[in-house]
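It is worth pausing here to work through a concrete case rather than discussing structure prediction in the abstract. The textbook approach is simple: state the sequence, then state the predicted structure, then interpret. We follow exactly that order.
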Amino acid sequence: MRLRELFVEKLRNLGIKRIGVKIRIPRSKDIIRSLALEVANGKAEVFRGDGGINFSFDLEGKYLPEPPEAYVGTAGERLFGKEDLIRGRYFPIIAVDCRFYDLHSDKEKRKVHLQVTKTLGTVREFMWDEKLVVAAKDFGVGIYCERLEEFLLGRNIDEVVLLDPSGDEVFKGEKAECYVIGGIVDKGENRNLTKLIGDELEKAGIKCRRQRIELRGDIIGVPDRINHIAEIVLRVVVDGSDAETAIRAVQPVVVAKWRLRKELPKRAIRLRLGEKTIRVLAKSVFREFDWLNVRQTDFYDVCREERLYLVSDEVFDRIKKLRWDEKRKYYVLS
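Step two, the predicted structure:
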């Protein structure tokens, strides 16, 4: 259950249907989520009564020209605050370890900075600010710590899940107190840095379950940006989604097309036309990829890039009835 849902549940249990605001809050499309964040961040609490306010919001966030039954503020007849709201509920820590930040190029550093900043927005969709921990590099978001191992041991956390594309386990949604993501642009010479983060944590006595996020048996097609990895994990462990559904919800089209480029040639057949050999694919194959975030136009784009010729199912079946050359592994149009 996300923080917003928990906040609404708490209000409903108290019989509150209209909520007011007596503090300044950031502009937001979701007023209820913003109020939940203010309470969870310890900046305000919920108080009984109208607080002298003549307008309110229902629990879906719709404006109402009526006084509230309770309000979010800093003084009054207290109903609940942060600890009452989150007590006994599961909200993990998302830790981004940037200890290898200085090994990146300037362009890569900008990407890391952007992705970590966006990760705060992701965390706020599910939880609140202090559930994001950023180690070794202070970007002004979440909780900053110089060394992640010191932070974890200070919280009595001696086991974490490290999200590592080369991990020896597959992430299946097991709950952990902390999920660690490398603050890394995972390209070229940076590719093994996530493993080194795990090694350093284990030297400090913290057990690391090194888990990779897979999509149908492959890491290709799994988004690799820090904020996307965080969202996949939170959709699974907080929302209760399965990993495949979470990946598709987060997956940029460009990443989905990477996977499509790998999968489509497997489904093509080779056809010999005189002196030329082409690869042929049935148009209906597109329907097999509802697990990727691609439209039919994306499917056509990849087929064009891979030089795959699309034909109807009827033509595809007729090709498969042609003579098969076992040695050269193609069908022959005589």
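Step three, interpretation. The longest strand covers residues 276-282. The mean pLDDT is 96.
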